[in-house]
Design a protein that fits this description.
By secondary structure, the protein is mainly alpha-helical. It is built from 7 helices and no strands. The chain has a single domain, classed as Globins (Globin-like, Orthogonal Bundle). α2 crosses α3, α2 packs across α5 and α5 packs antiparallel against α6.
Length: 133
């Protein structure tokens, strides 16, 4: 007989709650369908490699939600600087993300936690972190 206390499984991360890599892949697929269909956001992706963007977004979302993935893309401030994005664009992006998250079995708190984590990158995406905005 050992003195080990039974270990309880750790709380699942948001990455786990979304469904791991498969769930993140599905999230990004549905999310970018909405983004590309948006008349104000879609044009920002004209000529862009959507395969690469989706791959980078899977990495970014996976890392932001506590998954075992490291983001390997360019710093967000450099990747978005040439787009001259405004807060209204970012708000549309977040609105589409919230709508997409409604398709997942998540609580409202979990959805808002995901939005909060993604919003941590807002200044870099808008360029305001380095004074570009």
């Amino acid at each position: 007989m050992t003195d080990e206390t039974p270990r309880t499984p750790s709380e699942p991360t948001l990455f786990d709650r979304v469904g791991g890599m498969d769930g993140i892949g599905t999230l990004i697929q549905h999310f970018y369908h909405a983004i590309l269909s948006d008349p104000e956001l879609g044009p920002f992706f004209d000529g862009a490699s959507m395969e690469r963007i989706r791959r980078m977004q899977v990495e970014l979302f996976s890392a932001a939600l506590g998954g075992p993935v490291q983001y390997s893309g360019r710093p967000l401030i450099h990747a978005h600087q040439h787009l001259h994005l405004e807060r209204t664009h970012l708000q549309r992006f977040v609105d589409h993300l919230m709508d997409t998250l409604k398709g997942f079995e998540l609580s409202d708190d979990e959805r808002y936690d995901i939005i909060t984590r993604i919003n941590l990158y807002a200044d870099d995406v808008l360029g305001s972190a380095a004074g570009y905005g």
